[in-house]
Amino acid sequence: EIVLTQSPATLSLSPGERATLSCRASQSVSSYLAWYQQKPGQAPRLLIYDASNRATGIPARFSGSGSGTDFTLTISSLEPEDFAVYYCHQRSNWMYTFGQGTRLEIK
Amino acid sequence: QLQLQESGPGLVKPSETLSLTCTVSGASISSTSYYWGWIRQPPGKGLEWIGSIYYSGSTYYNPSLKSRVTISVDTSKNQFSLELSSVTAADTAVYYCARRDWQLVPWFDPWGQGTLVTVSS
Fold first, then answer.
1. List of residues 6+ apart from B3 with CB closer than 8 A
2. Cβ-defined contact of A46 to B105 (cutoff 8 Å)
3. In a 3-state reduction of DSSP, which class is residue B12?
4. I want to staple B42 with a disulfide (CB 3.0 to 4.6 A). Which of A13, B75, B80, B93 is the partner?
5. B48-93 residue pLDDT tens
6. A89: contact with B, CB 8 A cutoff
7. Distance (Å) from the alpha carbon of A3 to chain B's nearest alpha carbon
8. What is the pLDDT of residues A14-43, one digit of tens each?
9. Do B105 and A99 touch (CB under 8 A)?
């Protein structure tokens, strides 16, 4: 099983600041990595797929990068609605796993 | 617009079988482009993929749950279902169903709103 480790566990920032979230895979997943945003009481929403492609309707301030084992989600300038939990997710060899999540909170 | 809705008992007794159904609207569950999946989230914790199914009935499961999981599809009702046997308190979670469009964007999107299942006597 491929383990995804996200860092930091919690990130405290202010609106307008830049957020950088990391996800490291225990072995290469090529570009088969996605990022999801989850707000309290809601289902996860797909933000980024195949490491760097924005899903439909996702604002341009969200961007993803990386390949192999190291990936980054960047939010260029935080809006109030961006404070949430973010999960990375990989699909490899018909087995899917998620990271433990990064909580992005208002400072 | 594709929508998914989970349904089933919110309370299940230990050692019994958890049964949930996901009803799909706005798309055909028989489409050759889609896989359908179940994911769960214990309260306050992260996400765990349970398993996925194709309209033909082909399935693949999380190895950690495989011995207790059955996912099936009913194309006549545009639904797919989850059964998890021999449940314990550790199976208490919000259970989500989701679509995976393997041809265009092969990731879970969209998701249902989720349904909380509590395992307790």
1. B24, B25, B26, B110, B112
2. yes
3. strand
4. B93
5. 999 999 999 999 999 999 999 999 999 999 999 999 999 999 999 9
6. yes
7. 12
8. 999 999 999 999 999 999 999 999 999 999
9. no
